[in-house]
Amino acid sequence: MAKIVLDTLRHSYMPNPVQDSDWALKQLDLQWDDGGAYALLGPSGCGKTTLLSIISGLLRPTHGRVLFDGTDVTDLPPDRRHIAQVFQFPVVYDTMTVYDNLAFPLRNRGVDEAHVDARVREIAEMIDLTHMLERRAAGLTADGKQKISLGRGLVRSDVNAIMFDEPLTVIDPHLKWQLRSKLKELHQRVRTTMIYVTHDQTEALTFADKVVVMNEGQVVQIGTPVELFERPQHTFVGHFIGSPGMNVLPCEIREGRAHVAGTAVDTATTGEIGALTGEVRIGVRPEFIRFADKGVPARVVKVSDAGRFQVVEVRAGDLPLKLLVPEGMEIPSQEARLAFDPTRTQIYRDGWIVA
Ligand SMILES: Nc1ncnc2c1ncn2[C@@H]1O[C@H](COP(=O)(O)OP(=O)(O)OP(=O)(O)O)[C@@H](O)[C@H]1O
Predict the structure, then answer these.
(1) Would the ipTM clear 0.90, i.e. be above it?
(2) pTM, whole model, 2 decimals?
(3) Which residue's CA lies nearest to atom 9 of ligand 1?
(4) Minimal-distance CA residue to ligand 1 atom 7
(5) How far is CA 73 from CA 81, 223, 298, in A?
(6) pLDDT band with cut points at 50, 70 and 90 for residue 307
(7) Is the pLDDT of residue 253 over 70?
(8) For the chain, which domains are there?
(9) In what residue span(s) does the ABC transporter domain sit (predicted)?
(10) Contact call for residues 258 and 218 (beta carbons, < 8 A)
(11) Cα of 24 to ligand 1 centre, how many Å?
């Protein structure tokens, strides 16, 4: 296992990158601690696969260095980096048995058969494959085959990290939940650094102790699931995580206070707020707004049932907002006032939180 450091990393697929958009990865400085469970979360095209390929050695970055425990591995080929990878689609040898598939990465490295046998049986037990070890992989469902891929990723104990690239794509929805929790449990048992790439927030938040959120080739926040929820560093994180996402509203700073739709609101930015240039916004999650006697005047336009909550759509002047209200709680029929929880209401300038 190793601490992985990405030092001033940049990557472009173009020979002569000029403008910002020419870079698939803009400047990245990241540290993955030894034994951590990380998720790399972001929309399609944000640079997740590019980043993984740079860590595994399939791609050389245009700028910057990759360090494993302080050693520069930027020019080392993949087979000398000792990274295990599990891909979106199962990589199994159909003609081999499940046992031989799991044993393959170990035998390939000349591990003696006694150790191979012990490790294969240990991993098979962890991922519930013991009862089918003697079966040929060809006869298994896509779920079963992907379990073998997971097992092959986990079987070596000498890897620096295991990277999972959208590993649950082919898994049946009702099994996804099961495997998601299984992966978390496996991390707790093997304690190898794991990087789990996904564009699905539920997968990221269930698996990871720390989530790295990417957008347009840059990291916009690294944090625990709670930090991402309670204090998004960028409006993108507020939108992307949560359902519904954070409300992001135009805001005016007057006499040292933030105003939304003409009404002053208190925010987590304490003290008098100075003049701010750029695009100034207020961000507040639907969970942190409630109906009150005083506050921002609004009109209820729609109520939808979402299980234990109701999603209430309102308009404050022209601004559309959403609130989450517990099931059964009374909702004003039309005119209402909204109170924002000041500790969870943030000011953003040009997308980034104002500290
Ligand atoms: N081989 C390549 N040649 C040129 N451009 C590429 C290549 N691979 C990726 N890109 C571009 O680099 C950017 C980042 O792509 P990347 O595949 O890393 O994103 P991603 O987050 O993994 O997306 P997805 O979830 O769809 O796989 C995108 O703009 C993409 O079009």
Answers:
(1) yes
(2) 0.91
(3) 50
(4) 13
(5) 7, 26, 57
(6) confident
(7) yes
(8) 4-238 (3.40.50.300), 246-353 (2.40.50.140)
(9) 4-241
(10) no
(11) 7
